[in-house]
Amino acid sequence: MTPRFLMTDPAWFDVSYSINPWMRPDAWAGHRKAEAVAASAALRRALESCGGIVEIVPAVEGLPDLVFPANAAVVLDGKPLLARFRHPERQGEEAPFRAAFERLRGQGLITEIVELPADLTHEGAGDGLWDETRQLFWTGHGPRSHRAASDVIGREFGRPVVPLELATEAYYHLDTCFRPLSGGEVLYYPPAFTAQGLAAIEAHVAPADRIVASDEDAQAFCVNAVCLDRNVIMARAPDRLRQRLTDRGYRVVEVDLDPFILSGAPPSA
Fold this sequence. Notes:
Layout: E1 4-8, H1 32-49, E2 53-57, E3 73-76, E4 79-82, H2 88-91, H3 94-106, E5 128-131, E6 136-141, H4 148-157, E7 161-165, E8 178-180, E9 186-188, H5 195-204, E10 210-212, H6 215-219, E11 226-228, E12 231-235, H7 239-247, E13 251-255, H8 258-261
Parallel strand pairs: 1-2, 6-7, 9-10, 12-13
Antiparallel strand pairs: 3-4, 5-6, 8-9, 11-12
């Protein structure tokens, strides 16, 4: 199937509060709104040029982080497991994301919408990454998502799950520090994980398939990438990372996402 991505109109994006160490309201200024609109458009062009289809979620005033719809749900085989957010600042996003999936269900693209138990938080594909090569989910827990939510993912989708404990608020979602690639490699940033998390990665990924990101790579948010076939779409990459991926046969597609990195992530799902 053609890969399909959610993006959100960035009309109401800004950085007005701080719920992760990267968020810098003091560095945000009104002129950056135009930069954010341009960056979002560039990301959409990159996704579509690499074969993806983009669905747009309307902007909602007062929900600036709606532009990060990777956090909306874990989705596989036409079924989304809706997110439940930890921070009050993001909890208002749950209703518009549900509405977006209801619209997709009306188009026949979604077959069933499921929810987490009321006592659990889990922030969608931010903490739940499907690994096509290994036919399993990698799930993050700690800063934003409960460990028990990983078990729900396994039950709902009937697929193996490998939970990974995150060690720091700086890499608050799994997708900020871990990315399975189409050739079976995994790009990851070891300092973001506890010893148990690293042991789980090493137990499932052969040494030849481990691509260890540097501090520079992680701080540039290049691990938070999208892989479409042999294309890896990411924020502007350090030279060494670009060369390492090229040497493995990938085409690196870079997008200037600086306005969104001021809030802690690139804006796609």
